Amino acid sequence: MNPHPVPIKPNPCSNSCAPNSSAEALNRDCFCLAVDPRELHKELEAVLGAHGVPVSLADSHPHLFSALPFYVSSQHITQTAEVVAAIEEVVAASDYQSTVMSWAPAIAQFDPGSPGGLLGLDFHLGISGPRLIEINTNPGGVLLNAILGQAQHACMPDLTVPPNDSEHVEEAVLQAVLTEWQLQRGSIPLRFIAIVDEAPKRQYLYPEFVLFRELFLRHGYSAEICGPEELSRKENRLWLRDHPVDFVYNRLTDFALQQTASEVLRAAYLSAEVALSPHPRSHALYADKRNLSVLGNRDLLQAFGASQAAIDILMAAIPLTQLLTPENREAMWGNRRRLFFKPAAGFGSKASYRGDKLTRRVWEEIAAGAYVAQEIVAPSERHVASGADPLKVDIRCYAYRGKVLLYAARMYQGQTTNFRTVGGGFAPVLTSREGRVQD
Predict the structure, then answer these.
(1) Which one, of 263, 249, 259, lies nearest residue 205 by Cα?
(2) Nearest alpha carbon to residue 250 among 197, 177, 179
(3) 5 within some domain
(4) Contact 429, 161 (CB under 8 A)
(5) How far apart (Å, rounded) are the C-alpha atoms in residues 257 and 151?
(6) Cβ neighbours of residue 76 under 8 Å, at least 6 residues apart?
(7) 3 exposed, middle or buried (CB, 10 Å; 0-12, 13-18, 19+)?
(8) I want to staple 211 with a disulfide (CB 3.0 to 4.6 A). Which of 98, 138, 143, 404 is the partner?
(9) Hey, how many other C-beta atoms are within 10 angstroms of the C-beta on 165?
(10) Comparing C-alpha atoms, which of 401, 380, 402 is closest to residue 23?
(11) pLDDT digit string (tens) for 114-166?
(12) Is 308 within a domain?
């Protein structure tokens, strides 16, 4: 639980927020204040300041949090949870693993023994139900959104609630880390955790690294934030300066640990000298964009022995996703206006392109790389003021071992969720009380 609850003043709601309104109507017409971003910034600044980090989030991260919630129907909450469980079922199948390992980097063959930490599953919601856009293995924002959820003021408290109990998210996240440790190291005591990313203090979500460090320290573990180049090996251990490292919470986007700065971490991981999560195998099994072409293929799912329920769920949820090959590239170019092109190992929408924005020059670069073409699915929308253009919305499910731990919304304009949109950023998700996810 957050030790420093954020005070939020209730705000009166208009008739546009009537109890019998649909989620779509509430997202269009209800402008009740859910959280005060200024108070959230102060809360995070206090945590950072207590750890010697002088930063004003109001200046450096003005669009980290949106003031308004995003409403999701209880049916969509249920359906997204079903997608999470169905993916976990399929990923456990040996034939699925053999299929996706055929294009994975060699390091992914090494199995450290754990699932690989939290997943972030991103959905667009529409009249045909939730559509899964992508899966991430080092999703940012879970602790930030836990604080956001605790600070939330629901404008219809008796009828509308968060789909998860945000007060227990930190505990669930910590338990996921400890489960990763136990599956990789058994009963060996966990003492020191390194939170690793490239140039961590320059990362936009560095405040969350501090929240993770505080969480670990609060539960009796030593923890520090560092870059991969700060790590060393000696005495068959991974070290951060004078500290032997037991566990690396990995936020690197070098998913296969192939960059020069990751060489020490890669060697220690492959020599089982340190527990690592998320790890290269988890990225290969879940997050490679090519995997969606498998998870959305009925014939393959049947061949893998997936249950009919899981097949039906995934076929309804996953937009048509195809590998870009020399054989189909001309057809893809001709159909490009309906497609979104993503690099197989991409993240954060980097090097991703809407087909209707493509030039021939960029197309030639795409066609020479490892890309998938995904059917464009319109994002959800949230109006933030009467008469103003709506913002686009993605729904992210933070999940571990087939169970959703937290729902969050990301509001934005443009092609990607870039935290540069006035009124946008992370937003709390609210649903009807019957849609509450049970522990």
Answers:
(1) 249
(2) 197
(3) no
(4) no
(5) 37
(6) 23, 125, 129, 130, 395
(7) exposed
(8) 143
(9) 18
(10) 380
(11) 999 999 999 999 888 999 999 999 899 999 998 888 776 545 444 456 676 76
(12) no
**Interval 194-218 mean pLDDT:** 95
Lowest mean pLDDT among 41-45, 61-65, 84-88, 194-198: 41-45
* Alpha carbon distance, N-terminus to C-terminus of the chain: 16
What is the domain range of residue 123? 15-290+380-435
Strand 380-382 with 391-400, pairing: antiparallel
Instruction: Report the length, in residues, of the chain.
Output: 439
CA atoms of 84 and 314, how far apart (whole Å): 9
132 contacts 318 by C-beta, under 8 angstroms: yes
Listed residue (316, 255, 260) closest to 129, CA to CA: 316
Contact 247, 153 (CB under 8 A): no
Q: Which residue has the tokens 């500290």?
A: 243
Which SS3 state, helix, strand or coil, does residue 7 take? coil
Q: Could you give the CA distance from residue 25 to residue 185 in angstroms, rounded to a whole number?
A: 50
pLDDT at 433: 58
Average pLDDT score, the chain: 88
DSSP per-residue letters across 165-229: -GGGHHHHHHHHHHHHHHHHHTTSPP-EEEEE-SSGGGSTTHHHHHHHHHHHHHTT-EEEEE-GG
**What is the structure's pLDDT at 78?**
93
Place of tokens 């959305």: 296
Q: Is 307 left (phi over 0), alpha (psi -120 to 50) or beta?
A: beta
> Coil, strand or helix: which one is 253?
coil
Give the predicted TM-score (pTM) of the model. Answer: 0.90
374 SS3 class: strand
Split into its structural domains, the chain has a count of 1
**334 within domain boundaries:** no
Which tens digits make up the pLDDT trace of 388-407? Answer: 889 999 999 999 999 999 99
